[in-house]
Amino acid sequence: MRFREGAKLDTSGVQDRRGGGGGRGLAVGGGGIGIVGIIAFVLVQVLGGGGSGGGGGDVASILSQLQGGGGGTADNTELEQQCRTGADANDSADCAAVAIIDSIQDYWTTALPDTLGTQYADTPTVFFSGSVQTACGGATSGSGPFYCPGDQLVYVDLTFFDQLETQFGARGGTFVDAYVLAHEYGHHVQNLLGTNQQVTPGETGPTSGTVRLELQADCYAGVWANHATTTSDDGQEPLITEITDDDVARALDAASRIGDDFIQTNLGNGTVDQDAFTHGSSEQRERWFSTGYSSGDPGACDTFGTDDLG
Predict the structure, then answer these.
(1) CA pair distance 166, 115, nearest whole angstrom
(2) Cα(218)–Cα(214) distance, rounded to whole angstroms?
(3) Could you give the count of Cα atoms lying within 13 Å of 185 in the half-sphere of its Cβ?
(4) Quick one: pLDDT at residue 54?
(5) What is the spatial distance between Cα 43 and Cα 181, in angstroms, rounded to a whole number?
(6) Structural domain boundaries of the chain?
(7) pLDDT in tens, 235-251
(8) Can you give the pLDDT at residue 72?
(9) pLDDT for residue 161
(10) Helix axes 282-295, 209-227, angle to 10 degrees
(11) Which residues of the chain have pLDDT under 50?
(12) R_g of the chain, CA atoms, integer Å
């Protein structure tokens, strides 16, 4: 994945609440339960903003009790200085995230009204480190990326992308980061459309509304990816110039490692319990990202209107 060298980055799509503690590294779980235990617990919710429309609020609140929550005031000064152009995005993971968020929101600003008849509302992604307070409760680094409908913000500790590689064996890469962020913005799209209202809070199972919501967000991520290299940057040339077959393969690899069955087998008790599914199987997550990517059509992401989720 490559960005247009001369593209101008817009850091207003990010609220940097890391307090100068930015940069990639491995988060360490607190509260005495350790990072592996935290990840095993919270990755039932990973990449999904909670699935029930709660934006991960319940799990975030529990994590806050386990580890303690913290605040954070946004200060984009460092990002503004370091992330000016696409060349910076090609050299820096932080700047790449800024560029990805720019592209995702540029796409949905046009596509949402054109394809689904609803106006898109820009929303920032909060970069945090350690812990953060949200309208959905407190969260820590262990909670993974999530979307909170209460404040309509995406939250991510960027060290999560390292955890995908070190804890789950994902191949990683910039486009994997893009898949994760695009999934969370898929939840923002669902919130704007009112799709969350179709889900019964706490519902689980392979065909539950919770799973359908998550798979649809995967599909929306694929739709954006289909258009990423043709989505103009504020009327200029596309911000993203290249997405390779290897990039897509890496995203599918990541999707396979955050399926409920993979998590239960590798981080749980080794037994797959479909009745406890909240995000879908590895195969389903790959399938629905691929559906969005191959079609480029948000209308193809109607996981609530099919009996065949894969």
Answers:
(1) 38
(2) 6
(3) 33
(4) 41
(5) 16
(6) 2-302
(7) 789 999 999 999 999 99
(8) 66
(9) 95
(10) 40
(11) 21-71
(12) 18
Query: Which 3-state string (H, E, C) describes the chain?
Result: CEECCCCECCHHHEEECCCCCCCCCCCCCCCCCHHHHHHHHHCCCCCCCCCCCCCCHHHHHHHHHHHCCCCCCCCCHHHHHHCCEHHHHHHCHHHHHHHHHHHHHHHHHHHHHHHHCCCCCCCCEEECCCEEEECCEEEEHHHCCEEECCCCEEEECCCHHHHHHHCCCCCCCHHHHHHHHHHHHHHHHHHHHCHHHHCCCCCCCCCCHHHHHHHHHHHHHHHHHHHCCCCECCCCCECEEECCHHHHHHHHHHHHCCCHHHHHHHHCCCCCCHHHCCCCCHHHHHHHHHHHHHHCCHHHHCHHHCCCCC
Look at residues 146, 123, 141, 177 and name the one whose alpha carbon lies nearest to residue 13.
123
Residues in CB range of 246: below 8 A, 6 or more apart: none
Q: What is the pLDDT of residue 20?
A: 52
Instruction: Please give the pLDDT value at position 23.
Output: 47
Tokens at residue 46, please? 């990973």
Q: Is 228 left (phi over 0), alpha (psi -120 to 50) or beta?
A: alpha
Q: What is the pLDDT of residue 267?
A: 82
Tell me, what amino acid is at 153? L
Contact 55, 148 (CB under 8 A): yes
Helix axis angle, 174-193 relative to 93-111, nearest 10°? Answer: 40
CA distance 129 to 140: 8
Q: Name the residue among 246, 100, 116 with its Cα closest to residue 185.
A: 100
Written as one letter, the residue type at 93 is A
Tokens at 203, concatenated: 């519902």
Under 8 Å between Cβ of 99 and 89: yes
Query: In b/e form, how buried is each residue of 184-216, taking b as 16+ CB within 10 angstroms?
Result: bbbbbbbbbbebbeebeeebbebbbbbbbbbbb
Q: Which amino acid is at 76?
A: N
